[in-house]
Amino acid sequence: MKNICLNSSVKGLLSILFCFFVMGFVDVVSIATSYVQQDFALNDSLANLLPMMVFLWFAVCSLPVGFLMNKIGRKKTVMLSIAVTMTAMLVPLINYSFAMVLVAFALLGIGNTILQVSLNPLVMDVVRKDRITSMLTFGQFIKAISSTLGPVIVGGVAGVLGNWKLIFVVYAVVTVLSWLWLYCVNITEANTKNARTGINNIVNLMCNRYILMLFSMILLIVGFEIGLMTTLPKYLLEQYDIPIERGGLTCSLYFIARTIATFGGAIILAKVSSRKFLIISMLGAILSFGCFLFLESQWLIFTAVFFVGLFCANVFAVAFSAAIQSQPDKANDISAFMIMGVAGGALIPPIMGGIADVSSHFISLFVPLLILVYLLVASFKLNHSSIK
Q: Where, by residue number, does the polypeptide cross the bilayer (predicted)?
């Protein structure tokens, strides 16, 4: 019987990890924004509203999803998210217009919000407590693989088939497979269906200074990555006349670094203090970003982008894990609140776009630099007791 339970747990974990791959589909919005901007002749301010259509929903939907998850369970909520994501992939294939792109991006944001709120706590149902940080980091490794492949697939189908939108066909098929796999496995969930959730619980979390700091870390690291990935192809075009297709591949370089770092982080964080790990990472990220801004050699710039991705890869997993482990009995509520921070992807790009319109993309890149400085300061304040 013990072997049967173990086998069931492993199958459940594998199906959950595959859902992390679907979670990475949201990052295609960065490179897709550049193509949509070209297709519809949008200025930077308007183009940078496209990521807002995705990430705004993390602010709007996260708390209601937390309430829903307490009623129907984590697995069913994850399956709902995958169904919404699949619908988002079909919209631009049916009708490619600016209005329908906005609809598709909105559905992608809603689906990804539901997925991130419910999937991370579901991990807690299949792994030991002392391995939660490590396994969440490994989930981010799977997500990073998906994010890395996105610009490569877009560039490939645009160059070979002449239609970048065919990436949505690939994503739709993978999304269906993910739903079917999760449906077929049995996962024993923690008893949260009758948990009492309300506005007072969320208000209490917002009044918790430590939780609020961790929330700000998630909000800013997501805004940092989406803002950087959205601006990078246009910055390289402006500064070095590098075509968007090639500049978009630089985003893949960033995500390759994230993939490597999240895999390494899953191993290191099982043994090393998350606080010390994050402090070193942020120091490296600031140094690398400074090189990216002020070096003139293209190859050195690409190398700097790689190292920025390497050092920033594990911020989300560390902050999220620290939050849910600080109060495990409120994991669903904390997860919903933390995932609201992903709305940073809607906040930072418009700010950078507005700066770019009145100055240049180079000046707008000082926004993510300031974010890294803040994350370094916050990393010194992580509690040793709440992270493994």
A: 12-37, 49-70, 77-94, 100-123, 144-162, 168-189, 210-232, 252-270, 277-295, 301-324, 336-356, 362-382
With vertex at residue 226, the alpha carbon angle to CA 224 and CA 229, rounded to the nearest 5 degrees, is 100
Rounded CA-CA distance 263/260 in Å is: 5
Q: What is the pLDDT of residues 70-121, one digit of tens each?
A: 888 889 999 999 999 999 999 988 988 888 888 898 999 899 999 988 888 8
Average pLDDT, the chain: 83
Residue 236 sits in a domain whose CATH number is 1.20.1250.20
Distance CA 44, CA 233 (A): 12
* Highest mean predicted confidence (pLDDT) among 50-64, 97-111, 240-254, 372-386: 97-111
Quote the number of domains for the chain.
Answer: 1
Higher per-residue pLDDT: 260 or 204: 260
Q: What is the crossing angle of helices 274-294 and 298-312, to 10°?
A: 160
pTM reported for the whole predicted model: 0.74
Give the residue numbers spanning the domain of 330. 2-386
